[in-house]
Design brief:
Blueprint lengths: L17 E9 L6 E4 L8 E6 L1 E16 L2 E6 L4 E6 L6 E2 L4 E6 L1 H22 L9 H27 L4 H33 L5 H28 L2 E3 L4 E5 L48 E2 L4 E7 L4 E7 L11 E6 L6 E15 L5 E13 L14 E18 L4 E4 L6 E9 L2 E9 L6 E6 L6 E5 L12
Antiparallel strand pairs: 1-4, 2-3, 3-22, 4-13, 4-17, 5-12, 6-8, 6-11, 7-10, 8-9, 10-12, 13-16, 14-15, 14-17, 15-16, 17-21, 18-19, 19-20, 20-21
Helix pairs in contact: 1-4, 2-3, 2-4, 3-4
Length: about 475
């Protein structure tokens, strides 16, 4: 596959663009004839050739990447150290399998504090006649203080829930916090109404105090649940089946491939180009993986699980070409790390969300199935790894057995009424140039289809067409 580009406007850099390929041309291949059409040293060189018949493909080139079926990055729910490590780097694991446990005194302490606060709230709300020791103004102040404390504790509970590595467990914990928050808000509204009645001399102080205690119990129980979920998450399990890549011990940085992809290299027969695996932070290159006893900070990467059992592809297609791309479009794929191999894919979907790039460029993500490939020797190509970069050539239009000429033969001129541009070519007949309007079908940078106005075998000007004049002698 050859990469062809077309000029960009001033708003952005050059990008892979639509092009047209002439495939397996049928008939006589036109040999260019160079003729001097004026005298002197500045003679204009005019090239001619015959219109041929062949197959034409319009192709949109885009930068792409190989994607795994699924991947999951697990992070530490709390600061601590690796208490037990049940897997080795690169090991295959099953969903639900225990990978490691984290010892976190801070998480255990937070749970004990939450339980203590909940027990205190239970005692405060269970005493009979507790309102007799509180004035209405004190009750109002207690209500405001409880509201502030509740919001802070719900925020803390939500933050704790978000540190849970397992996606399903995290979602469950967040849902529980939100449910408790909603329940608290209902009870708080009820308590506020009772407080207002007490202040107006119409309500019972003990009833209002009891309602306030019930509301406080909701948020203290939510805090206990969140703290317990964090402690439970200290036992790290695999959310999906796949191969694990342990996090670096004491450092970040690393590969431009997804974590875990490097482990798939073993036995694959593939090799990365020089520097392909280096990330922006090379200071951590070669950092050892986590071991038992290693310290971890909250939010640090513990392990990545990557399922490469089924591969797919993504391609970033420019906004000027994306409307040509629809599900079912076939693609030829060149993977940078596998020299000489040609892979294949089929468009499955086009993401509707735009992505902005440098220089104001806008692209859309196109998703494709991975349909295998062949090597230079015709044998099946090595299976690429998740994260490998690729060039995806999307065949958006294809015609066979059509009349075609080089794109350089086409002259475009604006319509006198401004409705649309018209296309024409210089046809050489009897040694003279005659301008003829034509209808262009599939159009691109290399060759174009002529659907009307030209027959196979007719000679046309292919080089220097802009300098030709009507009736000019062309040999």
């Amino acid at each position: 596959m050859r990469a062809l580009t077309r000029p960009r406007t001033a708003r952005g850099p050059a990008r892979p663009a639509a092009r047209v390929l002439s495939v397996a041309a049928v008939g006589t291949v036109a040999a260019l004839v160079v003729a001097g059409c004026s005298s002197g040293d500045d003679a204009t060189k005019i090239g001619t050739g015959e219109a041929t018949r062949g197959d034409v493909q319009q192709v949109v080139d885009a930068a792409g990447q190989v994607q795994p079926r699924a991947s999951s990055v697990l992070t530490a729910p709390a600061a601590g150290s690796v208490a037990t490590l049940a897997v080795t780097d690169g090991q295959e694991v099953q969903a639900g399998q225990v990978l490691m446990t984290i010892d976190s005194p801070s998480a255990e302490q937070a749970l004990e504090q939450a339980k203590s606060a909940d027990a205190e709230a239970a005692r405060s709300g269970s005493g009979s006649g507790s309102g007799s020791a509180m004035t209405p103004s004190q009750l109002s102040a207690a209500q405001r203080s409880a509201q502030r404390d509740a919001e802070a504790r719900f925020a803390d509970a939500e933050a704790q829930a978000r540190t849970i590595a397992d996606p399903a467990a995290q979602a469950a914990a967040l849902a529980a916090v939100q449910s408790s928050r909603t329940q608290y808000q209902l009870l708080a509204s009820q308590t506020q109404a009772l407080v207002d009645q007490v202040n107006a001399g119409l309500g019972n102080l003990d009833t209002a105090v009891a309602s306030l205690g019930s509301a406080q119990r909701v948020q203290t129980r939510a805090a206990v649940a969140a703290a317990q979920a964090t402690v439970d998450a200290l036992t790290v399990t695999a959310p999906i089946s796949g191969r694990v890549s342990l996090g670096a011990s004491g450092g970040g940085g690393g590969s431009s491939l997804p974590a875990g992809a490097e482990q798939l290299l073993a036995g694959s027969g593939l090799s990365l180009p020089s520097g392909a695996g280096a990330g922006a932070d090379t200071s951590a290159a070669g950092a050892p993986v986590l071991t038992q006893g290693a310290a971890v900070s909250q939010g640090s990467t513990l392990v990545t699980v990557i399922d490469a059992s089924t591969l797919s592809l993504t391609a970033d297609v420019d906004e000027t070409d994306v409307l040509l791309v629809t599900p079912g479009v076939k693609a030829q794929v060149a993977v940078d790390a596998v020299d000489g191999a040609e892979y294949h894919g089929t468009v499955t979907s086009v993401d509707p969300t735009a992505k902005s790039g440098s220089g104001g460029s806008v692209t859309y993500t196109v998703r494709l199935s991975y349909d295998g490939g062949t090597g230079p020797d015709g044998a099946p190509a090595a299976t690429p790894l998740p994260g490998m970069s690729a060039t995806v050539s999307l065949v958006v239009k294809s015609v066979t057995g059509v009349v075609e000429v080089p794109a350089s033969a086409i002259l475009r001129a604006g319509s006198p009424h401004g409705s649309k541009d018209s296309d024409s070519v210089w046809v050489v007949s009897g040694g003279k140039a005659e301008r003829r309007d034509v209808t262009v079908g599939v159009r691109g940078d290399a060759d174009v289809e002529i659907s009307e106005g030209l027959r196979q075998g007719e000679r046309v000007v292919t080089d220097g067409a802009a300098d030709v004049t009507p009736g000019q002698q062309v040999s």
